[in-house]
């Protein structure tokens, strides 16, 4: 995990999953050069579901600042509507470049996630927005 405020809970081949040390936030940081398919998305959901329940997390951050992250259509569909996401009140995505920001905004507009979803360029405003979601 990048920030000292987040605790690492699980390493996957394509992402690190953790939680905020004091806030009810799930944190997923995608690794460099990953292409996610349906099976990867299924693995992510199966890993995050028990973490959300155990730690009573109600918000999510998807850190997409790594270079070259792609999701196929099946992965996008699953990540916009799944059992894990349904337990959260809101999700924020963090991006660091224009291409990733365009992809994240496309995801929000095209897939219409089942919970409020916003795109930010850093963690602090994302956390601020999340904590305002009721």
Descriptive account of the structure:
- The chain has 134 residues and is α/β, with parallel strands linked by helices.
- The protein is built from 5 helices and 8 strands, in the order ββββαββααβαβα.
- The chain has helices at residues 38-55, 73-80, 83-86, 98-111, 123-132; strands spanning 6-11, 15-20, 25-30, 34-36, 59-63, 69-71, 90-94, 117-120.
- The strands form 2 sheets. The chain has a 6-stranded mixed beta sheet, with helices on both faces.
- Strand 7, helix 4 and strand 8 (117-120) form a beta-alpha-beta unit.
- Helix 1 (38-55) packs parallel to helix 2 (73-80).
- The longest helix has 18 residues, at 38-55.
- It starts with 5 loop residues before the first strand and ends with a helix.
Give the tally of β-strands. Answer: 8
Number of separate helices: 5
| Distance from first to last alpha carbon | 26 Å
Give the biggest sheet: 6 strands, mixed
Mean pLDDT: 89
Derived from helix and strand composition plus strand pairing, the structural class reads alpha/beta
Helix content: 40-55%
What is the strand arrangement across the widest sheet?
Answer: 1-2-3-5-7-8
Order of helices and strands: EEEEHEEHHEHEH
Question: Radius of gyration from the CA trace?
Answer: 13 Å
Indicate the low-confidence ranges by residue numbers: none
The shape, in one word, is globular
Strand residues, percent: 25-35%
């Amino acid at each position: 995990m990048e920030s000292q405020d987040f605790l690492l809970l699980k390493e996957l081949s394509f992402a690190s999953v953790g939680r905020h040390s004091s806030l009810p936030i799930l944190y997923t940081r995608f690794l460099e050069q990953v292409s996610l398919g349906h099976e990867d998305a299924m693995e992510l959901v199966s890993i995050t579901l028990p973490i959300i329940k155990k730690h009573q997390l109600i918000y999510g951050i998807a850190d997409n600042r790594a270079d070259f992250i792609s999701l196929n259509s099946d992965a996008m569909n699953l990540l916009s509507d799944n059992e894990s996401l349904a337990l959260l009140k809101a999700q924020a995505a963090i991006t660091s470049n224009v291409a990733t920001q365009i992809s994240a905004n496309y995801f929000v507009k095209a897939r219409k996630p089942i919970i409020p979803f916003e795109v930010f360029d850093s963690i602090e405003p994302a956390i601020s927005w999340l904590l305002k979601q009721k």
